[in-house]
Amino acid sequence: MPSSTLADRLDRIVLYQVYPQSFADADGDGIGDLDGLAGRLDHLSWLGVDAVWINPCFVSPMRDAGYDVADFDHVDPRYGGDAALDRLIAEADRRGIAVLLDLVAGHTSDRHPWFQAAIADNTDHRYVFSDRAAEGFEPVPGPRGGFYKPNFFAFQPALNFGYARPAADEPWRQPVDADGPRQNRDALVDIIRRWYDRGVQGFRVDMAASLVKDDAGHVETAMLWNGIRSRLDATHPGRVLLSEWGDPARAVPAGFHGDFFLQFGGDSDGWPLKSLFNDNAGTVHEAWNQAEVWAGADGTGDAGDFVAAWREAADAIERDGRGGVVGLPTANHDFTRMVSGPRDAEQARAALLLVLTWPAMPSVYYGDEIGMRYLPGLAPHEGSSLGPRYERAGSRTPMQWGEVGDGIHPSRYLPEDPDPARPTVADQRDDPDSLLSFVRAAIALRRTDPRLSARAEVEVRTTAYPFTYVRSGSLLVALNPSRTPRTVTDAGGRLIHGYAARLSGDTLHLDAFGCAVVELDQTPAAAPAASDERTRA
User: Fold this and answer.
1) Which UniProt keywords are listed (predicted)?
2) What pLDDT score does 289 carry?
3) DSSP 385
């Protein structure tokens, strides 16, 4: 492992997200497992990533693909059990790759022993119970009677972390310092510490903003997570907590080392990320009603709202003073892939380069490095469906390895992309013009050039087509995800990475879907506009 801690390097790392049941299968049962992931760590090492985040792998009935945990202290047998995780951590350590797990903090499965005990004991307040029917509550399936509050699906009872405000007509509301909430806070700390003791370097926390109920402004939620952060830092300094909050401006001051822009979260319900990447061709919520997207061939979107949200988050993180970061994903298990609908792998290059050069912590979703597509038309599987068009299975299909010849089997958790021309690691690895080679080179640039740190300066020149910005005063990034060629003036220098891009004197030419990183000869005193552009201050 590197001598510095993961928390020390958070501004420089590249994160890679693995959906374990879909990644690689070592035992041949058709389900991806942790030994399969361990067997493919050389791919991650070759790609250049620093840390791997693994979606939930704890014991579970898998009604929500592992987000319904029945035992926080053991790895599910379908992933190889605890010994498989120990082997994975050992192999990852040898390669300098940190392992992060996924913690479902706000609820359990209804089969968890805690819930089974609570529904038989009316003095147990680990969950939220009501003696009478109430909106959003479900009947208790045990001798206790009454009703319980779910946190997501009905089979995921909410752990009781208290309510921020009492209500006379809702007697089930307990204060955050009641015995049940205290018990659950202590349990969270103990669970995390036990896995830290086994070599885990951090957690991504699911639904992190959901713990304290009716919490306007997330004031009590922030107190909860800051308290947990302090306790963990005291015993395991250097480990990291990343949140699924979708609002970095609030989440990092609330105690997390980083938070991702997501397809939900914040006052705008995830608009900063959706404005960049949601093309209404993958996971689509009927309420979104989105007409324009920046990463679209028509060139009708704009990255300005994303930039403004990032700036707000960066300012809040700077005020917090603990060195947190904004996270920017290529996709995730709940959101459409970069390649979806009409947007193909060529068109996605500019968007991928944005993720890897913007002042944020990049997270590469497995398969995005080769241009795996969102696969439409799949049947719901293990709780994947959230609505008529919000089908997450299409973003969870098996990693497309091709013929790599190492004895590790492909996953059969979901159907593989049936397209005979589907991209694979084997086909792209030795091709210098492939998307995989392009992403690998961008990751190498990100990791070796301190000007691309998440904390390094950025000067945004233009936010539409092309989207242009200068990192640390001397590194120009120009991105054209549209089909219309564009030019950038005052771009004289050396082209160090790109696609469909060329320099002619001081002018950078971007063909359709072109993108570039240019080492500038000098930075102009006044930022010029690019052609066909809407300029924002």
Assistant:
1) Hydrolase
2) 81
3) B
What mean pLDDT comes out for the span 311-319?
98
Cα torsion 63, 66, 67, 71 to 10°: value is 110
Contact 339, 330 (CB under 8 A): no
Q: Confirm if 279 and 293 have CB atoms less than 8 A apart.
A: yes
Residue 447 sits at the vertex; the CA angle it makes with 311 and 5, to the nearest 5 degrees, is 85
Instruction: Please give the Cα distance from 439 to 447 (Å, whole number).
Output: 12
pLDDT tens per residue, range 34-54: 999 999 999 999 999 999 999
Closest CA to 215 of 171, 258, 250: 250
- Under the banding of pLDDT at 50, 70 and 90, the label for residue 535 is very low
Q: What is the identity of the amino acid at 87?
A: R
Contact call for residues 17 and 267 (beta carbons, < 8 A): no
Q: Give percent of the chain with pLDDT exceeding 70.
A: 97
C-alpha 104/C-alpha 102 separation (Å) is 7
* Predicted TM-score of the model (pTM): 0.96
Distance in angstroms (rounded) separating the CA atoms of residues 52 and 131: 44
Question: Is-contact 228 235, C-beta < 8 A?
Answer: no
101 contacts 203 by C-beta, under 8 angstroms:
yes
**How confident is the model over 488-501, as pLDDT tens digits?**
999 999 999 999 99
What is the secondary structure of 279-309 as a DSSP string?
A: -SSSS--TTT-----SSSTT----SHHHHHH
Peptide bond into 466 cis (omega under 30): yes
User: Residue 276's pLDDT is what?
Assistant: 98
Residue of 463, 489, 468 whose CA lies nearest to 478: 468
AA identity, residue 101: L
**Cα 122 from Cα 126, distance rounded (Å):** 10
Dist CA 115 CA 108 (whole Å): 8
Q: What angle is formed at CA 195 by the lines to CA 192 and CA 200, rounded to 5 degrees?
A: 110
Nearest to 325 by CA among 232, 221, 202, 439: 202
Cβ atoms < 10 Å from Cβ of 197: 10
Q: Which helix (H) or strand (E) holds 325?
A: strand 325-329
Nearest to 484 by CA among 465, 462, 512, 464: 512
The two three-digit tokens of residue 241, written as one number: 């907590």
Q: Of all residues in the chain, what percent carry a pLDDT higher than 90?
A: 94
Q: First vs last Cα of the chain: how many Å apart?
A: 42
3-state secondary structure of 175: strand
pLDDT digits (tens, 9 = 90+) for 150-175: 999 999 999 999 999 999 999 999 99
* 510-531 confidence digits (pLDDT tens): 999 999 999 999 744 444 445 4
